Amino acid sequence: MCFQHVKAQNTPVLGWRSNFSYTDVKSIVKGNSSLYAATENTIFAIDRAEGSLSKLTKINDLNDVSVGALGLMPDGETLIIGYQNGNIDFVSDSEIKNLSTVKDFETTQSKQFRSITNNSRDIYFAGDLGVVVYNIDRDEITEAYQNLGQEGKPLSINQVLIYNDSIFAATADGLLAASLASNINRQDFNNWERSLPGLAFSNIIQTNFGFFAASDSDLFKRENGNWIFYQNLSSPITHLESLGNEVLVSSETQVLNLTESSLESIYNTEGDGTRINHVLNDGSFIWVATDGLSLQRLIKGASETGIYTLDGPTSDLSYNAELFGSKIYLNTSTFSDLNEENSFSLYNHEDRNWLNIKPSTTGEPIGQIIDLVQLNDEIYLASYDQGLFKTNLAGNSEALISSNSGPVSINSSYNLSSITTDEEGLIWASFYDRESNVFSFDPSNNSWENQSPSHPFARYTTDIFIGPNGDKWLSVDPNEGGGIVVYNETSNRERYLNLNGGQGGLPSNVVTDIELDQDFFVWVATSQGIAFFTNPYGILEGGSLTASVPIFENRLLLRNEYITDIGIDPANRKWFGTKSNGIWLFSETGEELIYHFTINNSPLPSNNILSLAIEPVSGEVLITTDKGAISFRSDATIGTDEHQNVKVYPNPVAPSYTGQIVIEGLVNNAQLKITDVSGKLVKEVRANGSTAIWNGRDLNNARVKSGVYLVFSASQDGLETYVAKIVII
If you ran DSSP here, which 8-state letter would residue 629 be given? Predict the structure, then answer.
């Protein structure tokens, strides 16, 4: 087995990098020069001559994510993308043309496209709304066949076949056929002939030896105008491809070659859990799209296979991004979405590689991975039902809860809801709906200690945050009262914070994240906005306590916004992820908006932000959404006490360049004065940590003239200085 693999590339300042998962490939199409493969949320291309791989994403100007179907224009070069929301892109070497007619159509029905069929100058888009016909010459949608179900009810169309003067359709309720004659109204369901109603059909094709259609694991053939049962396979059929005298048939577990006289298995998954989704013969190789093993290339009759994939996490649905050193970890479960996916992902900023790890113990996979920490270069993972484990990069794991000590499993589950670490090297763990609900674990001697507070709401802890003085902040399940229980196991003091004034004054009792900034303020994200506590050391001192909320544009910052996660960057600026409104970046105090990224003004794949993590050396912000992960490289990086390896780029600056000029390697939070060669001040800039940007404009916001400009950089006290030169052409 050989691998063709492309790893992540370095990202420019203020640039974006996609981090989609390429593990599960759903479909493939063959162009003249490239193969195109679609995952759930993105596309990649394989150069048929060189075998090189490249990404197609919103970063390089696609208009959407979540792919429904792929197709090709008659030229064999222009890729057609039908998205799950009804949007359509036509992608050629020279341009990307968008058609949003279906996307913009107002309906409560799903608009997902499921297949694309090319017929001369007409392109047929089949999907949940029915069939949409796009005419190439008129560059518009010319027909739409909706509500083709019995009695005119909505009916999902999975694939269409054009043969002579007729159109056939594989649908969720049988097979349909209608005449393409100009005098036939195909928008009227009465003009469609129905066969085998009650059966859901996924595919329909025409070969030199007949028509075939697939329903679940059954293959049907059309003879003398009637559809009859032909063959049953051992697993559901996922795709049919006609090769004239042969048919490639893929089921969930095997690929078969069907001729007029035989049915031969040419590839199977050997019970490894891999699901086959699609198959394609490009004349030289057979390509198999799978869940689990990305895109495989087969040579008929040979045992050797090749795997083609790009670097990325194990899943597009990743939670709880956590930074430890230069590594960011993602897990595939969260308290509100437990699943048995037994893997987690690690992104290493030093070598810019993703590593996907499948942990197991005594040969059994570990699922419901809800949290991760790294301590002394060891990885510890929390499985909601199976407990705490120490694991390595190979996935070999050791259970750390024994029957002799520590938490107790009830009904085959520990209900381990979160873990974190303290400055003394202990791991703190919460156990949901348990009388003993908070424990500390000492990895040096594998010992557990019950540290449960007395407050009844602590029983329903979903997350733990440890304050700068060691106080434990326990986020409480909103379904059990919500809010925060703060306690200190040494002083035995505790306090419950909620939305009531004087008792915390939180915007909401639904607490989603708690973070500490560089001023030792504790920021709390809730379903109704953001708040912060300026003195976390005094939380347990008693007295009235109400959280502060920044004021932005004469109102409470992000009031009524569902905040999902908080990130603090090296400039102490605040990043806020939201459930439906993208991601916001505010100044240190929260009073100045710097960026607000949504799907409409950025490559974000979704406005539903699940989590974020900031790597301070590069300034890269990893953002996970419900439709995949993406990174934005901000201009805030961790600073040092002196200038180190100062770089200015681009330099020289071309006349056509309109982006930001980046100056990095500066002393922490340097003050920069930019002058012309005569010493006239052009611009003053302050670095965010060790990085500053200049837009090439002067104090009056006019673009500077061609020439040489000097950058004088100095530390806050003026003792550490540096001079750089920028050439504007």
Answer: E
